[in-house]
Amino acid sequence: MIVSLKSLLALGAVLAPFTLAQTTDAQLTGTWTTKSRKVITGPGFYDPVNEKMFEPPLTGFSYSFTDDGHYEEAYYRAISNPSNPGCPQGIIQWQHGRYTKNTNGSLSLTPFGVDGRQLLSDPCNHDNSIYTRYNQFELFKDYQVEQDAYSGAQRLNLYAFDGSPLNPMYLAFKPPQMLPTQTLNPTSTASAAGTTSTGKTKRSQEDLGIFPEPMNKNVLTKRKEPVNTDKWWWIGVGMTALGGVTYYCF
């Protein structure tokens, strides 16, 4: 049977999108975080049921990957204000979706467009934080998984679309610590498979100027430290003793 050139070209056009991104990498599986180890993906960072984001004690970012091609990311960063150093901004971002390893070694991260969340704190210009949806496609030109020469821990080096390196991340959990990998907040107007933001392959301060869907502003929660019961017991003993001395002296 002779296959026509036209038929081959048509088949190539159909298969072309699938030849670029069809694989995952088992080396990536797990939860990775920057040196502070205070920003970790999962329920400790974002609560999708109650729409709350938990502020970590230190800035940083975290990525998690699964064997079947899902990812999750969490960012907490401070943005300096050179024109007014006393008015820095803080930003918290979370999103998840699917990732693929492309044939050229790059990574494509496509979020579930309806699920991402962003919280911007700008106390000098707004009394309340600005809480919005967040949807940002990411392309990493290259990556490396290796053993850190100093600590001996597994290290992930990611390189942005332009080749610039991100801060290295270190393996924190394996299997990964993540929220469920399906769409958490489905809507009738957005696809659960996620959408790609054309022309935005890099986070930048300019990207923060548009907030199309303002949401509940009371979403920032600080994690409470556990109560030290021994401390309060000894304080109680001390107050009791002090009361007894006062009674007999007066």
Automatic annotation (TrEMBL):
Domain of life, per lineage: Eukaryota
> Low complexity: which segments have biased composition?
187-199
Bilayer topology reads: Single-pass type I membrane protein
Q: Where is this region: Disordered?
A: 183-211
User: What range does the record give for the signal peptide?
Assistant: 1-21
Look up keyword tRNA processing and say if it applies.
no
Provide the primary localization.
endoplasmic reticulum
Keywords, comma-separated and alphabetical: Endoplasmic reticulum, Membrane, Signal, Transmembrane, Transmembrane helix
Location comes to: Endoplasmic reticulum membrane
**InterPro entries to which the protein is assigned, alphabetical:** Rot1 (IPR019623)
Function, as annotated, reads: Required for normal levels of the cell wall 1,6-beta-glucan. Involved in a protein folding machinery chaperoning proteins acting in various physiological processes including cell wall synthesis and lysis of autophagic bodies.
Question: Could you say which protein family the record assigns here?
Answer: Belongs to the ROT1 family.
How is this protein named in the record? Protein ROT1
